[in-house]
Amino acid sequence: MLRAFIFVLIIFLMSKANGQSVVEMxxxxxxxxxxxxxxxxxxxxYVEGTRRIYDVIVPTLTMYKPNKTNGISVxxxxxxxxxxxxxxxxxxxxxxxxxxFGITAFVLxxxxxxxxxxxxxxxxxLQDAQQAISLVRENAVEWDLKTDKIGIMGFSAGGHLxxxxxxxxxxxxxxxxxxxxxxxxxxxxxxxxxxxxxxSITHHESKNNLIGKDSSSExxxxxxxxxxxxxxxxxxxxxxxxDDKAVPVENSIRFYKxxxxxxxxxxxxxxxxxxxxxxLNNTTTPDKWLDRFxxxxxxxxx
Length: 302
Hints:
Layout lengths: L3 H4 L4 E6 L2 E7 L16 E5 L2 E5 L5 E7 L6 E5 L6 E2 L2 H12 L4 E6 L14 H15 L11 E6 L1 H11 L19 E5 L12 H8 L5 H6 L13 E6 L8 H12 L4 E6 L17 H12 L2
Parallel strand pairs: 6-8, 6-9, 9-10, 10-11, 11-12
Antiparallel strand pairs: 1-2, 2-5, 3-4, 4-7, 5-8
Helix pairs in contact: 3-4
């Protein structure tokens, strides 16, 4: 039995469907860190047939594993302005698509900032992202994954979370994680991400939900990922639409420039149209960003 299964709560039994295994597990062994006992209950709302999840109390990680894996894995962080999780459009659908390329995908249902369930709402989501990286890396061999091919992907506010994992891997948000386990992802994909908390280009809903309207300049800087890039960051793949009215494309451009300045390998794809929240399919173009991502991944194998 997998070591992780000793302490994870199996919510879905392993099922074989369309050539993949699906397992949902609790992210933490015992107590969820930085948590407050509360009467808040998790809610799911359907919008055009897809789920939006609110008020996550117990974070989970769902593994989508193809029958034939190439050893590469990706942790997916859905977006939703740090208010909700677009768990299908920016999670499940993406995981299943990655499976078609032999990639094992993990959809992270992370906690959303909320003072009634967290001691410090600003770090709860990052704690969950780092715990997901730790969990996958600790069990990589038993899950038939390569320990040096563990990536993270995020959409919108989930892209902000992924960018924080990229830039703050030396900051252990959850001190219970073993020091021997690296929290540095091996690569990242940021899809129309919130990057900066600079008022001129930020997505204000994401910023205000995570750190509040009256945050210190130090906290704003800490969570402005374009200011946190160093030469030690991992390779990054970026996608954005130039007509994005929710999250200005300048977010991705500044992060890309920071990567170039620090000699961090980066590839960016900007579409003239597509708006925000298109998930896998930007219907304004026949081009598929996922195909470009797969091609980019192949260059990292060299």
